């Protein structure tokens, strides 16, 4: 996914793939014990929301507002969608207990100091 207004407003500097995150953690002298993507179940919705925001920005020529710096602000969602997202996240939690995920909207790396 591309860079967003949220990234700019919150001072983000880069996006990490799992491989890039592992390299950065190992370069800092830590040993990675596990790395995986998370939020795979809701990833298609994140991607669709971001695409919709881009299309609206191109059609209207303006952004949809600004996020306060250092604030994680999520779009309002219908309660049914919220329940579905929570259900998907609970299912994903069970999968993550057994295996890593090949894609998702976030990367998690666990590491120990050598």
Overview of the molecule:
This protein has 114 residues and is α+β, with helices and mostly antiparallel strands. It has one domain. The protein is built from 4 helices and 2 strands; from the N terminus they run ααβααβ. The protein has helices at residues 5-9, 18-27, 43-60, 79-96; strands at 30-38, 106-113. It has a two-stranded antiparallel ribbon. The radius of gyration is 16 Å and the shape is flat. The model has no long low-confidence stretch (mean pLDDT 84).
List the helices and strands and how they pair.
Elements: H1 5-9, H2 18-27, E1 30-38, H3 43-60, H4 79-96, E2 106-113
Antiparallel strand pairs: 1-2
> What portion of the residues fall into strands of 2 or more residues?
5-15%
Question: What ranges have pLDDT less than 50 throughout 5 or more consecutive residues?
Answer: none
Q: Determine the N-to-C terminus distance.
A: 33 Å
Task: State the shape.
Answer: flat
How many domains in all? Answer: 1
Series of H and E elements: HHEHHE
Q: Sheet with the most strands?
A: 2 strands, antiparallel
Q: Name the strands of the widest sheet in spatial order.
A: 1-2
Q: Helical content, roughly?
A: 40-55%
H/I helix tally? 4
